[in-house]
């Protein structure tokens, strides 16, 4: 086992909610209706692009056809952005994009990155993206670098995110979302090119919660788990006050799709480098509106469920976290490291790092994080 950084553990108790009396909830409901938008917040103009592209970017992204149109319009521009991930991305990678319907009838966007011909494949990596992200854009550069090191990389946009069907940013059931991931990746693991290779699941932020729940549902199906700033418990500073949460719990049953969860612009908490923060607006299909009520409550419920099962995490485990992350608490990663029953587990805390250590840090740090992932994979695939 390796523990790169040790910190003092301070772990708060869970919040427990009790229903409010109906007359109180009705008053607060009416107040929220009058003061909080139920639709998308107004989108800012993206500087330095044409009026035509800004018009396309301002489309209502609730449904997949609009998101796909926007992504098609921005793809070429995205690859030309001045970001370390795009400038250094290996070009000789075999990529494939496709759609397939899941068992619930939703059309899911899928993508793969494979090493160039002649490079032996050491293992397969299956990515789970974060809540405000997609499986393309920044991850494109990350996947290319990992693929160039000899790994098949696979990813999907979750239902309601990116280019997949479903209401934008809406998670009616976190468990269904996890089942969607298990269903798709089970198909991929049966492909001839990766069937007999080590398989690893890789989750960032909310994707870390999905990766953990996928492992907890099928403990023997993965040869390792990589977690970057995992959402095992939402930081106290990111949660609304308890009284507001009680109201939101009730309203989530009455109007689950409404965008009523208090909105915070997280870009300054995700990207440490301002120049990289400015480029986040070009991920034009990411969800950047107030959280839908049902989604917010499902995320809270998922973290509480994961917290109660951390001792059941048994696969080889790599946890990476920025020490200054204010979105998901690095102390929770420390708690996960200590509670997990995995015999092979590694925790790396990066001094000064924010939430987006894969894409929002100085170039040297981003490269170091990627190298840490690849070295961890190489060691476990060379046994």
Structural notes for this entry:
- It is a single chain.
- The chain has 383 residues and is an alpha/beta fold.
- It has one domain (2-90, 202-381): 3-Layer(aba) Sandwich (Rossmann fold).
- 38% of the residues lie in helices and 14% in strands.
- It has 13 helices and nine strands.
- The protein has a nine-stranded mixed beta sheet, with helices on both faces.
- The longest helix has 19 residues, at 363-381.
- The radius of gyration is 20 Å and the shape is globular.
- The two termini are 15 Å apart.
- It comes from Cicer arietinum (Chickpea).
- Residues 121-362 form the Serine aminopeptidase S33 domain.
- This is Caffeoylshikimate esterase-like.
Quick overview of this protein structure:
The protein has 383 residues and is an alpha/beta fold. It contains 13 helices and nine strands.
CATH topology: Rossmann fold
| Average pLDDT, all residues | 88
Uncertain ranges:
1-29, 31-40
CATH second-level architecture:
3-Layer(aba) Sandwich
Shape label: globular
Number of separate helices = 13
Give the end-to-end Cα distance, rounded to a whole number of Å: 15 Å
Number of domains: 1
Q: Which structural category fits the helices and strands?
A: alpha/beta
Can you list the strand order of the major beta sheet? 1-9-8-7-6-4-5-3-2
Give the class-level CATH name: Alpha Beta
**Amount of helix:** 25-40%
| N-to-C order of helices and strands | EHHHHEEEHEHEHEHHHHEHEH
Protein name: Caffeoylshikimate esterase-like
Domain Serine aminopeptidase S33: 121-362
Organism: Cicer arietinum (Chickpea)
Pfam families: Hydrolase_4
